[in-house]
Amino acid sequence: MSPTTHPFAHLSAERLDELAREFDAIHDEVRADLGERDRRYITGVIRLHRQIAVAGRALLLGSRSKAAWAAGTGCLAVAKILENMEIGHNVLHGQWDWMNDPYIHSSTWDWDTASTAAAWKHSHNFIHHTYTNIRGKDKDLGYEIMRIDPHQKWHPAYLAQPLYNLLLMAFFEWGVAVHDLDVEAIRAGEKPLKDVWHDIKGISGKARDQILKDYVGWPLVSALAATAAGRLVRPEPRSRARVLADRARGRRRKGALRAQLAAVRREGGGTFAATFWADFTANIIRNLWAHSIIFCGHFPDQTYTFSQEEVRDETRGGWYVRQLVGAANITGSPLFHLLSGNLGYQVEHHLFPDMPSSRYAEIAPRVRDICHRYGLPYNTGPLSRQLGTVHRTILRLAFPGGKPRAKPGPYPGDEVARAA
Amino acid sequence: MAEVGMRPPASPLRRRALRALRWLFTPLRPDDYLELINPLWSTRELRGLVERVEPERGGAATVLIRPGYDWVGHRPGQYVRLGVVIDGVHHWRAYSLTSSPDRADGLISITPKKVDGGVVSPYLVERARPGELVRLGEVEGSFTLPDRPGRGLLFVTAGSGITPVMSMLRHLAPSASLDDVVHVHSAREADGVIFGEELAELERRHAGFRLELRITGRDGRLTPDELDTLCPDWPERETYACGPGELLDALQAHWKRHGDTGRLHHERFQPVVGGEGAEGSGGTVRFAHRNLDADCPPGTPILVAGENAGVEMPFGCRVGVCHTCVLPIREGRIRDLRTNVVSEKHNEIVRTCVHGAEGRVTVEL
């Protein structure tokens, strides 16, 4: 492959060093400025998440009412989104470790999702953020099940990828959990069985906790609350005849217990189911959202992928450029950025993965300015467009063939140039 | 992992109830939600609210803290780890408790003296405000009075070395045990004596308590020989000393020559770390993960050497107490800056705040 495929082929080694110094300077400047304002931000978001979660659970106690169900499900979905994106993802990146706070720290944090913190820190923080968009090394590129880059060889299994992508969207957290296992490495015998077993134990432990909480615990709490509320509204003493019959059989206590259980089934059964489906729906909404934001981070047409050859002897400047052009931003309001964990600033996040996410909006103009001065693309666009190109790629590359699309900027890859 | 406070003495019933409910809140804990209502309700770590900050002489201030749960109690002379948030960063330091354990209002107090160039003490003296949340760590320290003080007592203190002794004096005062106590205290300036008025008041009220105040800015530093005139029966007394390292070193030497070292109890309120005249030749610390060499002059802890080189280092109390700053030393010789003992390490966990490099040391992070 000729060097012209590099989006930074026009940059000399010295120029790349200058670029690295500029990016390092942004990092150091923000690092030195972190303080009370930042701590207040993250503790505020954490408090907000917990308040919304409490509101959601409280509303779902009355989940037999349609309005309470909808409001409760909405609250829960928003809470889970905040918890996964702006809090979990970023805390686990170590973005807040500088605070030295034992309870907001990458070494102690766990999140409300199927993958364990430890496995995710390895597969995401280490593998994905180190080998970003290097084909064959970055396992997030297609998540080992999809053909997302035309360089990947086609296989008939990919014909079904539009379908299983839909499943992946709905059950994304489970997909990520299994992805952490690294099935490819297991198959190649590169992963020690001890580690595999450790991972499986971790995933099943988390799965048990998640299922118990969302699909047994809270539905039960709602059912009990509904029963208790029903009793308050219209007390139903057990019928005199029943009491006498139970006494005659000498099982007063057992009879009372049976009556209670029957009442919970009768009064709370509907509420149990309603809360169960509310939790399920909230999880699906969170998964759809996370999938969309995350797929828009690297798979829109704008982004480059790299061969392992291209990154051999990569300098720090080269690393920055790979992060820069391997990622794509999404434009949106501050609320959108909060709910997307500031991954609408995927470019900034990939340049500085351990910088507090709340700072990305501030440095974005400076990153864009550097791109402008060095003749590099700054990949960004509205959600609809980014999402559109992602799903178009998933559809198109399910079939054989397919070429890289033209990239922004004055340095198209040679395949594109040849095609044109 | 960052340093945490001590486990509060919450009732077992409460703990069991919270543990039973945990599965409904996973991966968080019920505590995380209770804290929304009141941060003092956490059963994970003991917290306290700053009730008052009272300025003291000599650039010190007494911080009175109301603990979230019943205070576990301390013996006079012990110290507590205190966690405060300064500019968003959680810092931990150990301070002698200056309050008597028997305070009726349940408050505890520390009395930090502002250290120029420090981080935590200037904050506590100048910026801490009532209502502020602090974290409380374990109570530690063996610098304590015997359960039944037999013969007379001698206190030798200097500067903020008065703080642990103040707790002792306040504890002894009401129980009429101040009937045979000599206190030799040194301060730089006459109007900069921490607790000066309270000490004078104690002397007025207790016939058996004698305060010998030494103003070093005027009279020069106290030498142990002078004790023969200040307190001629010093060899017969249990002696409690707290102050700068030089004073303690001199007292120890003096007791070794002329007295019974078993009866000299001392507390170094600052660990002997670095400073001028530090022993050893220093070295360089290699931070393998960053591919970076940090200069580590004699007497400089590895923690400080790393921070100066821009490495983000875990840190806690910075005095070798809390074990938050521990890192594995892959290889190299290190010096314990408190004892000056040099040892060879190979893949061993070391407290970076009280160990310096001796030659070339490789650290993993």
Task: Tell me the layout of helices and strands.
The complex is a heterodimer of chains A (420) and B (365).
Chain A: H1 13-33, H2 36-60, H3 66-92, H4 117-130, H5 161-170, H6 172-181, H7 183-187, H8 193-233, H9 240-248, H10 252-298, H11 316-326, H12 334-339, H13 346-351, H14 360-374, H15 383-396, H16 414-419
Chain B: H1 12-25, H2 30-37, E1 47-55, E2 61-67, E3 79-86, E4 89-96, E5 108-110, H3 120-127, E6 133-140, E7 153-158, H4 162-172, E8 181-187, H5 196-205, E9 209-215, H6 216-219, H7 227-230, E10 238-242, H8 245-258, E11 264-267, E12 283-287, E13 292-296, H9 302-308, E14 326-336, E15 342-351, E16 355-363
Parallel strand pairs in B: 7-8, 7-10, 8-9, 10-11, 12-16
Antiparallel strand pairs in B: 1-2, 1-6, 2-5, 3-4, 3-6, 12-13, 14-15, 14-16
Largest sheet of chain B: 6 strands, antiparallel
Shape of chain B: globular
Structural class of chain B: alpha/beta
Total strands of chain B: 16
Question: Mean pLDDT of chain B, nearest integer?
Answer: 90
- Main interface by residue count: A-B, 31 and 25 residues
Instruction: Kindly state the percentage of residues in helix of chain A.
Output: 55-70%
Describe what is shown at a glance.
The complex is a heterodimer of chains A (about 425) and B (about 375). Chain A has about 425 residues and is mainly alpha-helical.
What does this structure look like?
The complex is a heterodimer of chains A (420) and B (365). By secondary structure, chain A is mainly alpha-helical. Chain A has helices at residues 13-33, 36-60, 66-92, 117-130, 161-170, 172-181, 183-187, 193-233, 240-248, 252-298, 316-326, 334-339, 346-351, 360-374, 383-396, 414-419. The longest helix of chain A has 47 residues, at 252-298. Chain B is α/β, with parallel strands linked by helices. A 6-stranded antiparallel beta sheet of chain B has the order 4-3-6-1-2-5, covered by helices on one side. A 5-stranded parallel beta sheet of chain B has the order 9-8-7-10-11, with helices on both faces. The mean pLDDT of chain B is 90. Classes of the chains: A mainly alpha (420), B alpha/beta (365). Chain A binds chain B through residues 34-40, 47, 50-51, 54, 97-103, 105, 107-108, 110-112, 209-210, 212-213, 217-218, 221, and chain B through 1-4, 23-28, 32-33, 36, 44-45, 85, 87-91, 312, 314-316.
